[in-house]
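[09:14] KT: can someone run the structure on this one? pasting the chain below
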Amino acid sequence: MRWLSALVERLKPGNGQDGIGQPMATACEAAERGDYSAALDIWAPLAHAGVARAQANIGTCFAEGRGVERDFKLAAQWLSLAAKAGDAVGLRDLAALHFRGDGVERDHARAIALYRAAAEQGDGPAQDTLSRTLLEGDGLEPDYAEARRWAEAAAMQGNAASMTRLGMIFNNALGVERDTGLAAEWWRKAAAGGDADGQAMLGAAYHLGAGVQRDAVEAYAWLCRAHRGGSQLAGRFLDAVRRTLSAAEKAEAERRAAAPLEAMA
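[09:31] RB: done, structure tokens below
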């Protein structure tokens, strides 16, 4: 651990910030392969030296029990330090604690303020969560316009869940005029991005002929894929569509559903 002590020394005020990037990258690689113990060994001295992203990562590990025993109080302490420094991950994950009341007071208004601060920095997951929270209300008055704004921002970053949500907004006329064609377009993008609910809603659109030409085989293919991906929405339509298919059509739909996603998108 001598090299870590030297790293902390370099990170002290006046010694510059050179050398942070590579250790952080190494730690993230360890975390990605599930070796959180190794990642925490790197993040710990960085966090104590005041590196906000390392503080946020440690807080998240405590919140989720990754490499350490779950401890929401310690999670809140580390995430609060990161959030105070303006780190987007710290803001986002502290918001999640406030939203659930884990280790901190449950406070939806505070959670939304933290999510918004992270979203304004361009954090895609925060934009997505803020959009969902504002759309559903979750104890507060829904704000459809802002929910759509943040869903669009997250979708621009490739967030498939936000694409599905945009489809719902246009299909259900939530603060906008109903546009089933645009809804289907968003569901197609979400489906191609691998979002199971987006796949289910695209399947439903093909089943109902809402925004797309009615196609029972295509509907069943997307619904099968969505069901396999864990979407509970798919179950609402599967049996109804299955009953309309011949044996050959059902086999074709199942063939499409088993194909690589790029082949259907």
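[09:33] KT: thanks! The first helix runs from residue 2 to 11.
[09:34] RB: yep, looked fine to me
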